[in-house]
Every structure is written in C-alpha cells, then in structure tokens.
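Late entry, written up from scratch paper. The run itself happened at the end of the previous shift, but nothing got recorded in the book at the time, so transcribing now.
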Amino acid sequence: MNALFAWLGIEAWKPVLTALLLPPVPLLALVLIGARLLWSRRAAGWLVLGAGVVALWLGSTPAVAQFAAETLLHPPAALTARRIDDLRLEAQAKRSLAIVVLGGGVEALAPEYGISSLQYGSLERLRYGVWLGRQTGAPLAFSGGVGHAQPDSMPEAQVAAKIAAQEFGRPLRWIEDQSRDTRENAARTIALLRPAGIGHIVLVTHGWHMPRAMRAFGAAAGSAMRIEAAPMGLATGTETPVLMWLPSAGGFTQMRSVLREWLGRLTGA
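Output as recorded:
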C-alpha cells in the first residue's frame, strides 16, 4: 500500500485517507444515511440509524476497545522481571544489545515550554525506554522523523534526544530522524544499528502497535538481527463494570488506535 501511495504521488494524503476510514467518520455517515432513508423507507431508515448509533456507543466504550485489541491484534505480554535481569547480564557480557524506542507523535510547539515536545503517547514510550535502559545498562536509540501529517515540525527523534538528556538524564546513543511511518522506522533503524555491531534489538512501543512494529522490524532485519518485543501501555481499565460500558474519550481513543493498527496490518502498511 505504501508503494502504491508513492507511485501515485499521494503519500501526503495518507493521514486524510486514514481519518476518513476510521471512526467516527464511517459511523456518522451511517447515521446520516439512516436519517435520509427515513423519508422514503422508514423501516430501513430506523434500522440503519439505530445500527449507526449503537456502533458509535459501543465503539467508544473501554470494554469493547479492550476486547477488540485482544481479538484483532494479540499484543505480546510485557517483559518480566526475570527477563529484564537476563537482558542486564547480556548487556554486561557484550555490546550487541540496544533498546529502540519508536516515536508516537510530536507537538510542533508546546506553548507551556515554548519549544517542540513529544505527544503523550510518544513520551510514555520514551519514559519506558529510559527506565529499561537504566535497568539493563543497554544503550538507547529513538526512531521518529517528520510524519506525513506534520511536514513542518522538528523531527521527533531530535525532540526526544533533548528530553532524554535534559529531563531524564540519559542521553540517546542513536537517533533516526528521517522515518515517516513504521516501515521506515524499521528500515532506517536497522541500517543505522547494523554498522554498530548490534545483533539484538529490544523494541519499545505500545502493545497495540507492537505486532505491526515487530513484523516491520523482522522483515527489515532478516536473520542477521534478533528483534524482541518490550511492549508498554498494557494496563487495563480500573473503572467499575458500568463505566466500562459507557462511552468515554479514553475508550474512543483506544478503539481508534486498535482499528488503525488492524487496518495497517490488512493493507501491509
């Protein structure tokens, strides 16, 4: 699919097309179609309208979002304390291990700081990567350039490098700041780390993004490099059962992320 967009010269349209395919746009269109049918085919109109409203409701609930993530994406489990101890021993024994954090979005200007900053999801990933680096002693890399939707912003990896050094006190060893999507994250990061003798990458990203990221990095690395998942953001909701079935901003955001990843896997993005 990426190759098709490139061939057609419409790569910049990827964020727009994605937004049109993801909730709430298709469901709102369903509601409008149902409303229009009420004028000519009343029964069909109520059926379509009701289906759209129910889908909007359920698609915004944490319970359905969590079920969709487990069913459609099958995210891997978090690293255990024992596995982190093993990684520490590996990092001490040889220098072929690196932790790679994937970017999740940049704010071109954060008014409170007066400079660029990382979006919340990206900052979460960086925080976990830094923590994992401290636990294991492995060096850190960050992959993230300028996305299709933010052509005028500072490359994300450069923003992450400043935050890692100045706020977390752990400078990045490598930054990959040219990629625009997950496939480019993988190809450019592997090309950056291979000359450094890295043979084992511990990959940090959200659990819902990890299956697609592992596929991309596995394809880029081949058999010459081992890719290990270190997912984060796996905590489930702690709301009461009633709240889990009520629409919320968090439920909607999670469902949208799940469907975006599922769509990306289907299209080979």
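The mean pLDDT is 91.
(Scratch paper discarded after transcription.)
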